[in-house]
């Protein structure tokens, strides 16, 4: 049974004036079924501040700068870019916006730390190691450049780091960072408190749910799914008493009226998934590997039909669900075996 989606292709998306000094610009993600990132601009006396920037690609840059221009905004006047999380469809173009305008880039300190690691890693001997290997194999310099160039470049390092509750530098408005870890450790939603709107990034989307995984799979010192579910509750708690709902401005799909209702629905979806997984494990008394568990779970197509990369991501999700059940005392990790295995606990 396939649910009908309201999702429309990028070709049908248009830049929009959302009123109250907020605009949206769809920015394509080439070759990705998600289609586009919704980049938002918020008016300020020093120039617009962007929420996310889009994928780093010439077509995306064209769409962003052209889309802003069609709304009467100039990319060279952007005052700042606040990034909901470090993923390339959000942070990718931030560096080019900064180059064009002198804007600052801000993100949560936890994602900023990851970006610094990625930049260090890309610049380290790892790079030399790979290009050396290619050269020694007889690749000519242009081929070495081509191969090295296909690796994704890390996002630009931020100039400012945000923590939970910080106000973004936006004169005359109140835009507050709400730390919502789960999809990434430093994911933030941005609450435009003077207009009762919430920029939700990937945290709360109207139809799909973000990927929540653990990498490496066998880490036991973090609980991203537990964090994500708490972050969903946090978003529900933002609605002021005198209001029925806060409007959600997500980074993908479409704008929707009630962020708390959708957050509760996503939380319910994961609670059910955890219950089903626990029931599955209870039927199989022997300890199972993460891979075995992933193959038993329900995905959007049969396990055997999943492309290898998607199997890898499914295993990451399975690991996150196992870890969440472990944190709740419902599953135990069998230590001292390789690969690591999990087993249901009676309760
Ligand atoms: Zn993302």
TrEMBL record:
The keyword Transferase does not apply. Residues 36-252 form the Metallo-beta-lactamase domain. Keywords: Hydrolase. Residues 140-162 are annotated as: Disordered. It comes from the Bacteria. Pfam families: Lactamase_B. The keyword Kinase does not apply. GO terms for molecular function: hydrolase activity. CDD domains: TTHA1429-like_MBL-fold (cd07725). InterPro entries: Metallo-B-lactamas, RibonucZ/Hydroxyglut_hydro, Sec-metab_biosynth-thioest, WH-like_DNA-bd_sf. This is MBL fold metallo-hydrolase. It comes from Nonomuraea zeae.
